[in-house]
Structure formats: C-alpha cells, structure tokens
Write a structure and sequence with these properties.
The chain has about 250 residues and is mostly helical. The chain has one domain. Helix content is about 70%, strand content about 0%. The protein is elongated and about 100 Å long.
C-alpha cells in the first residue's frame, strides 16, 4: 500500500472529510490495480466431440490474449494512477491536519486540566499510590492521552504522504514547540532533559504528555511542514547554550 493509500485509509477511519477528487482518484487507482492483477480465464471443459475442440480452444486463446493485453495496459497505468492519488491526497493533507489540530487542541486542554491534579511522578505501574480523586483524573487523562497519540500518529501518516521531511525528534515537534531561543538559554539543560524523557516514555502515555506540560511547553499540533522549523529552533537553543558556556 502506498503512503497516499495509507493516509487515505487512516483519514477515512478517523472520519476526516474526503473530497470528491480524492474519492475518484482512489477508485481509479483501485480499478487499475485490480485490472493489472486480473487472473487468466478458467480453462474450458473437455468437449463432447472432437469437432468442437478447435473452436473452443480458439475462443479460449482469444480470451486469454485479451486478458493479457488488458493486464499489460493496466500495468502501464499503475504508476500514473498512483501518482494521481498521491497528488490528490497531498493537495488535501494540509486541510486534514488543520481539522486534526482542532481535535488535538480540545483533547490537549482536557488532558492538561486533568493532569495538573496528578503527581508528576505517577506511573502506570504504581497507580495504587494515588487517592481516588487522583486515580479518576488519571483515568480521564489516559483517555485524552490516547486521543493525542491517535491524532499524532494520523498526522504523521498524512504528512508522510504529502512528502513532509523527516528528521530527528519530528514526532516531538509535531506536537509542541519551543519559544524563540534567547541569547542566554540557561534553562536549556532542563528542557533537554524533558525532551529526552519524552522519547523514553512511549510506554506510559500519561507521563509522557505530562513531561511536556510540566516543562511549560505548549501542546499544539504543527501545520504541514512546520516540524522542520520547530526542530531548527531547538538547535538554536542548543547552540546558544553552548556558545554561552564557551564565552564564560
């Protein structure tokens, strides 16, 4: 399955709006792919008379030749059909991500409201230490964390189909961003520690998202193409911190 087909399937499953041109490109791509993989017709049955055999075989040969010709023609159409689907999906990708950003913002606000009532060091394997109110808030936060994860994964699937560049920590900067780097970013080590924790806590979604909120980083789904610039801002923080240390 191509990246475009994966993105379209995921968009449909989530319930994103599918424009007519995308539906049409998808239907054509599926039809071409099916024709390119069509099976030969079944062989004819043994005739009752030898006199009938030549005509039956001639007809079967014509049918097989027609299928082979159609299959070859469809195979030649596969790449153009896939490219057309890719272009149709790429054209709507930014709009899909914009819709997702609204849902992401809603879940992020709800997650943050619940997570602030949970101890920062609360772990999935130690929930028995929470009081009933904290446990109830953790359960709600877990639900919203799952939604945030789902939207983040869907955004990546769509962005990949649209050709968004990939880079280290792209998943992080698809969901948060640093403020403009100051000349003296003395708190960079603390921010860097939170970034490392974000990478390491995939198995504990609540704690992972709390890592960002406790660092004071906003939860905001990046528009198409934005993670690259967000990652560049991270590099400016790091470089300014190094330069500051060297000047001391």
């Amino acid at each position: 399955m191509t990246y475009a087909a994966q993105a379209l399937a995921a968009a449909r499953a989530y319930g994103l709006p599918i424009p007519d041109q995308v539906d049409q490109a998808d239907a054509l791509h599926a039809a071409v792919h099916a024709a390119a993989n069509a099976h030969d017709p079944d062989p004819p049955q043994l005739p009752t008379s030898a006199d009938d055999l030549p005509g039956i075989l001639a007809t079967y040969g014509q049918d097989v030749a027609a299928v082979h010709a159609a299959r070859a023609a469809a195979a030649a159409m596969c790449a153009p059909a896939a490219q057309q689907l890719h272009q149709a999906v790429a054209a709507i990708a930014a709009g899909w991500i914009k819709v997702l950003a609204t849902d992401f913002d809603t879940s992020a606000k709800q997650f943050t409201a619940k997570a602030r009532n949970i101890p920062y060091n609360a772990r999935e394997d130690s929930l028995g230490q929470l009081n009933p109110k904290q446990f109830g808030d953790w359960q709600q936060a877990r639900k919203h964390a799952h939604t945030l994860d789902t939207i983040t994964e869907l955004r990546e699937t769509i962005a990949r189909a649209a050709g968004e560049p990939t880079h280290h920590d792209k998943a992080l900067f698809a969901v948060t961003q640093l403020p403009p780097a100051p000349d003296n970013p003395d708190n960079w080590p603390d921010i860097a520690a939170h970034i490392t924790a974000w990478r390491d806590r995939r198995a504990d979604p609540v704690r992972r998202w709390v890592t960002l909120t406790t660092a004071g980083l906003p939860l905001t789904l990046a528009p198409l193409g934005a993670p690259t610039e967000r990652a560049a801002e991270r590099e400016r923080w790091r470089e300014n911190y190094i330069n500051r240390k060297q000047r001391r």
